[in-house]
């Protein structure tokens, strides 16, 4: 079992909860909960757990308690998690001159 670090971008107040798509290099997590008293963060962590087929306790917030941009650790089989992350992110969009390239590595094993 390994720990994988994943950057997520939370969209609170969405019509439905879903996980998938890109916001830069981050995985998009839409949740119906509003960004009040940490409810959207809690809902995002549950949605990530469900999307990666792990227990909710296997997903931990690392950075971004009050931000839409967060980093989480997901515990599980690294190869399975990386494969699922690639599937959820979908294809990379072509680079445009208006958006500079960002360094890769949003899904790398944590060093702990």
Q: How many angstroms does the end-to-end distance come to?
A: 13 Å
Judged by helices, strands and strand pairing, the structural class is: alpha+beta
Q: Assign a percent range to the helix content.
A: 10-25%
C-alpha geometry:
globular
Count the beta strands. 6
Query: Sheet bearing the most strands, described?
Result: 6 strands, mixed
Count of alpha/pi helices: 2
Count of folded domains: 1
- How much of the sequence is in beta strands? 25-35%
Question: What's the CATH class label?
Answer: Alpha Beta
Q: Order of helices and strands, N to C?
A: EEEHEEHE
CATH superfamily membership, which one?
YggU-like
What is the CATH architecture term? 2-Layer Sandwich
Q: What average pLDDT do the residues reach?
A: 86
Low-pLDDT residue intervals, each spanning 5 or more residues? 96-106
Rg (CA only): 14 Å
CATH topology annotation:
Conserved Hypothetical Protein Mth637, Chain: A
Structural key phrases:
112 residues, Conserved Hypothetical Protein Mth637, Chain: A, six-stranded mixed beta sheet, alpha+beta
What this model shows, in words?
The protein has helices at 39-51, 78-89, and strands spanning 2-11, 18-23, 26-30, 59-63, 69-76, 108-109. The two termini are 13 Å apart. Strands 1, 2, 3, 4, 5 and 6 form a 6-stranded mixed sheet that branches. The model is unreliable at 96-106 (pLDDT under 50). With 112 residues, it is of the alpha+beta class. It is built from 2 helices and 6 strands; from the N terminus they run βββαββαβ. It has a single domain, classed as 2-Layer Sandwich (Conserved Hypothetical Protein Mth637, Chain: A), CATH 3.30.1200.
């Amino acid at each position: 079992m390994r720990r994988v670090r994943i950057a997520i971008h939370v969209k609170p107040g969405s019509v439905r909860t879903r996980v998938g798509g890109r916001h830069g290099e981050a995985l998009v997590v839409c949740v119906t909960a509003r960004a009040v008293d940490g409810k959207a963060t809690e809902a995002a962590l549950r949605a990530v757990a469900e999307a990666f087929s792990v227990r909710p306790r296997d997903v931990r917030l690392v950075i971004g308690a009050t931000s839409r941009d967060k980093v989480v650790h997901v515990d599980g089989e690294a190869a399975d998690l990386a494969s699922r992350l690639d599937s959820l992110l979908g294809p990379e969009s072509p680079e445009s001159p208006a958006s500079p390239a960002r360094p890769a590595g949003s899904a790398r094993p944590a060093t702990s």
